[in-house]
Amino acid sequence: MSSPYYPAIRLCVRALRASSRPSFAAQSSIRICQNAQKRTQRHESTTAAPTSNPKIATIVDQISQLTLLETADLVSNLKSKLNIPDLPIGGFSAGPSSAAPPPPAEEEEAAPAAQEKTLFTLTLKSFDAGSKPKVIKEIKQMLGLSLVDSKKFVESAPKTMKEGVPKEESEKIIEAMKGLGAVVTSD
User: Fold this and answer.
1) Which of 12, 86, 106, 141 is deepest in the core (most CB within 10 A)?
2) Which residues pair with residue 165 across a beta bridge?
3) Burial class of residue 123 (count of CB atoms within 10 Å of its CB; 0-12, 13-18, 19+)
């Protein structure tokens, strides 16, 4: 038995030993006993109850004994068996993701060689150490990231900022970032 309930239990025993005609002290002791019972019931209800299914309990025991590498292997096997896609964790996206475009026809492959490129991918290559706060602020505004994510983004340069940006907009972004002390390239 736990020590905080020991005095209450002693009072309960005294109350039970009291005469058949309960006195005020005995009634008080009975109430204390009832309160102690309620507290222990609440405490027991908040503790983790063992699972009723023994099969699940054995699986949980086995998983808890795995090493980190074995757990990673288990997760990858479960993902492949249950067809769960790998999602990037903490990845930054420049906008909403879209479905992959259908593969181009052979006729269209010859045409782009003659056409000028209109959509560009902007990449933050580097930045001046003194202008880091300004660059972080601009990245936060441009990409709609939080301050912490913007800081991580800038510190992980070189990194792709935006994809599929029109030529005019990409030139404006490059000039703005150059004015802040950052080097941005378009591909």
Assistant:
1) 12
2) 120
3) middle
